[in-house]
């Protein structure tokens, strides 16, 4: 990529060269016994208008491990001036004066781009409504690269709530950068992948199909990317139609290839029903390693955006 990114709010901002460069940096950090204090003197703000566990904590841990500091608010929707009516844009313009980078999660699709448009410091999208979650996509792609050994010539199943799932949308955009990728969308009829992603795949020659039978596709794919049915983003009627429809359990685990991987952005609920012993010892279960990778990917991204030469 000729021009360096000033912010990161959309998976489509990345090209293949930058993705692989960030992966090399991630691998180096993951293999380190001690971390370079490359961000000493830098401050990260985590501004989350929606709940988060993994994303927020891994970003904060990433900044601290690299020698930086973090300022935050527990719930920006309630415990910031947003409750007084301050616009998100005004909040960003104030908060960035206190820090070097802002990681923001917001309930409105497109909010991250709006924030980046008014900011003079790097803004990172940690999830914007039903829109995107690009750093999740980056760690997901790294996990596939690390576990399967490649991102070209793979077959991936996206399973569950594809209409509301920002993680699958963001990962779909990244997979479109690679060749020989095939994707199967497995979802209830009322939660199918939105047309813009299908259009993107068609433009980028990504082969895709839609399926309702999970058992049929399990033996055929390299990666099963499970997602939670997002009750908070749909009507009760839609939720009841989809609840419990697709599950990975001890029975259908036997259908999955020995060298395939089960991934999930977490938290998982009824869509994963495996014994703790299986989750601990079966190499096909990759989602806890996936979550761990989030720390190192976000360390690499922070170094990149904050102009660390290493």
Question: Could you please describe the fold and organization of this structure?
Answer:
The protein has helices at residues 16-30, 54-65, 88-95, 111-118, 134-148, 166-175, 195-203, 214-217, 236-242, 276-281, 287-305, and strands spanning 43-48, 69-73, 101-106, 123-128, 155-159, 182-186, 207-211, 223-226, 248-249, 261-263, 272-273. By secondary structure, the chain is of the alpha/beta class. The chain folds into two domains: 11-132 and 292-305, Rossmann fold (3-Layer(aba) Sandwich), CATH 3.40.50; 134-291, Aspartate/ornithine carbamoyltransferase (Rossmann fold). Strands 7-6-5-8-10 form a five-stranded parallel β-sheet. The protein has a four-stranded parallel β-sheet with strand order 2-1-3-4, with helices on both faces. A two-stranded parallel sheet has the order 9-11. Strand 5 (155-159), helix 6 (166-175) and strand 6 (182-186) form a beta-alpha-beta unit. Helix 5 crosses helix 6. The longest helix is centred in the last third of the chain and has 19 residues, at 287-305. The two termini are 17 Å apart. The mean pLDDT is 91.
Strand arrangement within the widest β-sheet reads 7-6-5-8-10
* CATH secondary-structure class of the largest domain: Alpha Beta
What's the number of helices?
Answer: 11
Taking all Cα atoms into account, the compactness measure Rg is: 19 Å
Low-confidence stretches: none
- Our estimate of the beta-strand percent is 15-25%
* Strand/helix succession: HEHEHEHEHEHEHEHEHEEEHH
CATH topology of the largest domain: Rossmann fold
Q: What separation lies between the terminal Cα atoms?
A: 17 Å
Describe the global form.
globular
**CATH architecture descriptor text of the largest domain:** 3-Layer(aba) Sandwich
* Number of separate strands: 11
Helix content: 25-40%
